[in-house]
Amino acid sequence: MAVKWGVISTANIAKKAVIPGIKESKTGEVYAIASRNSDNAKETAEKLDIPVAYGSYEELLEDREIEAVYIPLPNHLHKEWSIKAIEAGKHVLCEKPIALTADETKEMVDASKKAGVLLAEAFMYRYHPRYQMIEEVIQSGEIGEIRGIHGVFTFNSAGAKENVRFKKEWGGGSLYDVGVYPISAARMILKQEPQAATVHAFFSEKHGDVDMMASGLLEFGDGVALTFDCGMWADFRNRLEILGTEGRIEVPSAFVVNQNAQDHFFVHNREGTKEVGVPYVNQYALQADAIGESIRNGAALPFPAEDAVLNMKVLDACLTSAEESKRVEIKKG
After folding, report:
1. Sign (positive/negative) of CA torsion 92, 96, 102, 104?
2. Over the stretch 297-310, which tens digit does the pLDDT of each residue have?
3. 3 state SS of 255
4. Domain end: 67, 91, 122, which one?
5. Structure confidence at residue 119 as a pLDDT band (50, 70, 90)
6. Element (DSSP H or E) covering residue 186
7. How far apart are CA 48 and CA 15, in angstroms?
8. What CATH number does the domain containing 319 carry?
9. Backbone phi and psi for residue 209, each to the nearest 5 degrees, phi listed first
10. What is the DSSP code string of 97-145?
11. Is residue 298 part of a domain?
C-alpha cells in the first residue's frame, strides 16, 4: 500500500519537483495539498491531479488518511509546522534548511522521537546514486588521500525583490538557501564534522540585508578543508571538486539533476581523465522512496534527523562568522 502524502503549501519547489517526484516514486502517492488560499489549493490540486485540497494547513493535518507530510514553507515556519505535523502523528519531510538554528532543529528531533514518527531534511541530491559511485571511487584509491573539497552553488534572483529569500527574519540569504548544499556534501563525503568556520559575505541593503553572496572555509581534521561559495546574485553554477593526492573528482552538476551528460562526473589522475556515466533517475523520487521504505518496512533512514542538527550547527557558525567577521569554532556534541 502506498504511503499517502500531504503537502503543506503550493510553493514552486513542491509543484515543480517534489510532488512529481513522489508521484514517480514506488512507495508514495500525493493524496492532499493545502494552502491558506482555498482557491489556490484547489487550482493546484486540479493541475497536478491531487485528490484532496484544503484551505488551511490545520485541515490537512486533521486528515487521518495522510501518513506523511512535506513542508516547503518559508524557512521561519519550518519548525512550527513540522512540530504541528509531528504532534498530529505525521511523518515529516521538511525542506532545507530544516530550521533557523541547531537548537530549533533539536526541538524538532526531540518532538519526532517523542511522537514516534520520522523527521527528514529534504536534501534530495544525497539520494542520487552518483554519490555512492563517488564514494566507491574514493575508496578505490584512484585519487589517493583527500586533501580538500571545493563546492559552489550560485544563481541570480536579485531582481525578484519580493522573494522570501530576501527577508532576514524569515531565514533569508544564500547561506541558508544554497550554502547548505556544499556544507552538507563535505560532511557526507568526509564522514566527519568541521572544527571551525570562517565566512566572508556580501550583505545587500537592496535585499533586506541578507547575504546575497558568501565565501567560506570549513576546517576538518587532518588539515582537510572545504572551501565554498554560494550566492543569489551571481551567475549559475553548482559544482563540486574533491581533490586527492593522486587525482581529483570533478562533479559539474553536483546538486541539480539535468537528466543529461552534465550529470556525469569525471575522475582525473595520472592515467588520464575518465568520464563516469550516472543513471538518469529522479532524485526526488528516490528521496520519497527512502522515507517510504522506512515508514512501511522499518528501514533505517540513510540520513537520520540527528544529521540535520549537526548540519545546522555548522550553518550557525557560518552565519555568526559572516555577521561578526571572525573565525568561529564549532563545539562538539
Report:
1. negative
2. 999 999 999 999 99
3. coil
4. 122
5. very high
6. helix 180-190
7. 8
8. 3.30.360.10
9. 60, 25
10. S-SSSHHHHHHHHHHHHHHT--EEEE-GGGGSTHHHHHHHHHHHTTT-S
11. no
The residues, any chain, with a CB within 8 Å of residue 154's CB and separated by 6 or more, are 174, 178, 213, 229, 230, 231, 232, 234, 235, 236, 237, 238
Cis geometry, peptide bond prior to residue 97 (ω within 30 degrees of 0): yes
Amino acid identity of residue 302, one-letter, is P
Q: Which of 64, 42, 112 is nearest to 84 (CA)?
A: 112
Residue 44, C-alpha cell as written in the block: 493546484
* Structural domain harbouring 118: 3-122
Q: What confidence score (pLDDT) does residue 257 get?
A: 86
Kind plus residue range of the DSSP H or E element containing 313: helix 305-324
Q: Which amino acid is at 112?
A: S
Q: Rounded to whole angstroms, how far apart are CA atoms 123 and 255?
A: 9
191 and 233 within one domain? yes
CA–CA separation, 284 vs 223, rounded Å?
34
